[in-house]
Design brief:
With 673 residues, the protein is α/β, with parallel strands linked by helices. It has 4 domains: 7-180, no CATH class; 191-373, 3-Layer(aba) Sandwich (Rossmann fold); 381-599, Rossmann fold (3-Layer(aba) Sandwich); 618-671. The protein contains 26 helices and 20 strands. The strands form 4 sheets. A 6-stranded parallel sheet has the order 8-7-9-10-6-11. A 6-stranded parallel sheet has the order 14-19-18-15-17-16, sandwiched between helices. Strands 1-2-3-4-5 form a 5-stranded mixed sheet, with helices on both faces. Helix 15 links the parallel strand 9 (321-326) and strand 10. Helix 16 packs antiparallel against helix 21 and helix 24 packs across helix 26. The longest helix is centred in the first third of the chain and has 21 residues, at 75-95. The radius of gyration is 26 Å and the shape is globular. The termini are far apart. Keywords: ATP-binding, Helicase, Hydrolase, Nucleotide-binding. GO terms for molecular function: 3'-5' DNA helicase activity; ATP binding; DNA binding; hydrolase activity.
Amino acid sequence: MSDKSLFYRGFEGNTEIEDFFERFQEYAEANETGNSVYILKRPLGDKKYTYDYDKAVVILVPKHKMLFLDYGGNEEAFEEYVDDFVDDVGHISDKYDYMQVLGRTSKWRKDFIETRTYSEIKDLSVEDLLRSIRIVSNEMSRKGEFIISLLTGSINDIEKTGIAYPETILEKIKRKIVLFDGEQTRFIYDEPHEKRITIQGLAGTGKTELLLHKIKEIYTHNDEVKIAFTCHNKILADNVRTRIPEFFNFMKVQEQIKWEEKLWVMSSWGSKADRNSGVYSYICDFYGIPFERFTYSTTFEGVCKRAIANLREQGSVEPCFDYILIDESQDFAESFFKLCEMVTRKCVYVAGDIFQNVFDYEDVSRVEPQFLLNKCYRTDPKTLMCAHAIGMGLFKPDIPLRWLSDSGWSDCGYDIKKNDGYYDLYRKPLRRFEDLGDVKLSTLEVMPTKRERYFEKIIEIIAKIQKENETVEPEDIGIMFLENNNTNYELAKRLQIEIKKEFGWNVNIGYETKEKIKDTLFVSNKNNVKGLEFPFVICFMQGCLTDNLQTRNSIYMMLTRSFITSYFILPDEGIKNIEHIMQGVDQVNKNGYLHVKEPTDDQKKTLYNAIIQHTSIHQSQREIVEDVLDELRIPKNEREKFHKLIETLYKDEFDKDRVYEIVQTNYNMMNSK
């Protein structure tokens, strides 16, 4: 199956050598190396770099020299094109502090540049051509990837990636040079041809980071523009508003940000008192339509439908934004997207997870996004496979908890081989993990343990990680627990004290600080780990593993926070329910793919009918709180006081995770009296 994420062409229109470009595209989409191929006429990321000669391109492939190709036959113009292009690379290198790695262009030009005419290579196969320009040295190959990152706008932090070639497994993965793949590059740089552009991806594919790059592209290349970024979660919106100035500074954007004039970052609803607090509140104020206040029984879906009706009564409306970018789109109903389209001049970008919850009823293949990101660059493919299998119950000896259609498996990044009633599910290798050679990493370890020994087991794991990775730092390890109960909170506090004594490391209690802190080991509940990543994570749960869907999904989310190894501690008293998981994980670690039995057609129907739907913003606040009370098994006769508490605390939008913590904390306090 072809992989469109492995090829990018940075220009449109027919050329005299279209067949040659098509051959390169076919090679890229069929190859198994995980390397992308980029064909450019100019550096991406800054439109000031233009050239007079239009019959030349540069072909970029990791581990290979830059290939400048002349297909116009004008030797003098081609030489000038190459000289100007290389000079511009030098300027970009200086701009982003890459000079300390690459040095001046005169130092690296002869080592990284190859020039050819089309007549010289037209009869060569792509494989033979690439073989002739391959870079053998690891250190030289690393420098070549730095150059590619400059030309594609995938700028790396030199302080984090380091200058020297990393030697240990931990350093190789931590300091891997990030390069946008073809699909990511298209999203950032290609002009939209539709009013709505949908981008979907697995968690960990970097959607929010891509949205930041898209904001930067639009902002810096348009003098008169109005851009809005929005999401349902108010905390995420505040986080993005903080990140944008940091991101702009890192990307060397010279223009000062014009907040609420050129760029808005706000939640979806907002309040009537502040039009800039939400997209909906801004729309109501701008067009003079009624604003509906947040109430305990109101759904945002209904609010948006009524806003659309009010705007239609006005007839043709002048757009109030040029672009709107929506993150976490799975939290919204279609009415919000339509409302945004009505008030946007150029494009609405809609970004969300393929499935935010591994138990969502919706078949992931039903939505056809223009950009599909199914490569999770945060997590090793084997870890992701195991986490999917545990979350979806694929290792169960009888019927699983969840099953996808063939197109659904494909959309989630799996290649399928069917054999006598079984599915073998493969994931392609990723650049982040490809240079580890023959090292066989155990990416997930399932550890049945007596509850009273959890503390000792966690300390043992930390000591093991430290022994096997000499350069490990406190911030490389994340510890996270499933249940919000006193036992786990007490264990977290004990770990904070004892880890300091045993290892000399400070511990960051994430459910208190709400952030990841440098030079500290991270400990938190499941509610405060979304979006975080660590080389190593240690996850534990107090209850025995059951088929509870919310529990399974939370386990999946925690296990995929690692990019080297996840350790999963759970009670040994339920060993009969764990053995099949341990066998399945061992098989994935050994063979590199999932081997699972396909359910019968009748079983698939049963599964689809049993799936619960998490509708988030489609529900009223009362319905969402009731979901939380169900999940925490709060007795029916005690629920009304929690509804009154939440209604009193929240007069505006709210965050479900925060509600979960409030209910859990107050319930524990009441039971401890």
